[in-house]
Design brief:
Layout lengths: L7 H8 L4 E4 L5 E3 L3 H6 L5 E2 H23 L8 H20 L7 H17 L7 H8 L13 H33 L8 H39 L4 H41 L6
Antiparallel strand pairs: 1-2, 1-3
Helix pairs in contact: 1-8, 3-5, 4-5, 5-9, 7-8, 7-9, 8-9
């Protein structure tokens, strides 16, 4: 286990703490030096590592996909073009099977969500001490490199999707149609208060479940990697931990991909429901 000066509890706590920037107790602004100090910073604090890695991975996505588009050819494609086209075809087929309306935003958005979330999740497969230990050499005391293990990131994405759900629901159905969908479904109209309560809860549950599902699965995966890393304190336990960590990494690769796919697919499903104006309530 890296950082032998730390106890197991301190090691776990250290790896689960974000590099947070906000207002310090003395009124100045700076980086928190403990989880307690970060908590006291309140709502306006920013997890610098989560923001930095998520934006950086987004730029990497834009660079490689933009490069593939710039150098696309109708002749024999290169490896990058083949890879990008394979992902685009996969997402396009998936969206076509779910979204039966006309909206040029949906497929590119689904592609962006899938690849971006996948790249954020994939950071969990990097040995957990490599980047934090390198950051420590540069004087950075905390460094979480998996943005999707931060609920601020996953809920931020989910709330953006929720905003699109509301926008397209009102755009396609009108304010009256959107309210009627909430108030007069699924039970008879005289049960409007119950319908309104039920459908409002159902509507609000969409972004909450979308964000927390991704966060919960990735956070649990990261925790397992941390617990396995603790086993590297001895030769025998280190060998066992290495085997277990390799096995978990192979299984976790499926989770990494599946969670990105689920987030993208559910986004398309929710937006398809927002566009649906044919059902009578």
């Amino acid at each position: 286990m890296a950082g032998q000066e730390l106890t197991s509890g301190e090691y776990i706590k250290h790896h689960l703490t974000n590099l947070t920037y906000g207002q310090l107790p003395d009124g100045s602004w700076g980086l928190a030096h403990s989880a307690e100090e970060a908590k006291e910073m309140g709502f306006w604090a920013i997890n610098v590592d989560s923001m930095g890695w998520s934006i950086g991975l987004g730029l990497v996505f834009c660079f490689f996909f933009g490069k593939a588009a710039k150098h696309a050819t109708a002749g024999v494609p290169g490896g990058l073009q083949n890879f990008v086209e394979m992902i685009i075809d996969f997402i396009d087929d998936t969206v076509s099977n779910i979204f039966n309306h006309t909206n040029s935003l949906i497929a590119p958005m689904a592609l962006t969500i899938f690849v971006w979330v996948f790249m954020m999740n994939l950071m969990d497969l990097i040995p957990i001490d490599v980047i934090p230990e390198f950051a420590k050499l540069l004087g950075v005391h905390y460094m979480k490199v998996v943005p999707s293990t931060d609920p601020n990131v996953t809920m931020g994405m989910a709330l953006c999707v929720f905003g699109l759900i509301l926008f397209y629901s009102i755009k396609c159905k009108g304010v009256g149609g959107f309210f009627a969908e909430l108030a007069f479904h699924p039970f008879p109209k005289f049960l409007m208060p119950f319908n309104l309560f039920l459908e409002t809860v159902n509507l609000i549950a969409k972004p909450i479940s979308l964000g927390l599902r991704l966060f919960g699965n990735m956070y649990a995966g990261e925790m397992i990697f941390i617990l396995l890393a603790i086993m590297y304190g001895g030769i025998v336990t280190g060998i066992v931990g290495g085997v277990l960590q390799w096995g978990w990494a192979m299984f976790h690769l499926i989770i990494v991909t599946l969670q990105a796919f689920i987030f993208a697919v559910l986004t398309v499903v929710y937006l398809a429901q927002a566009h649906d104006v044919e059902e009578e309530h």
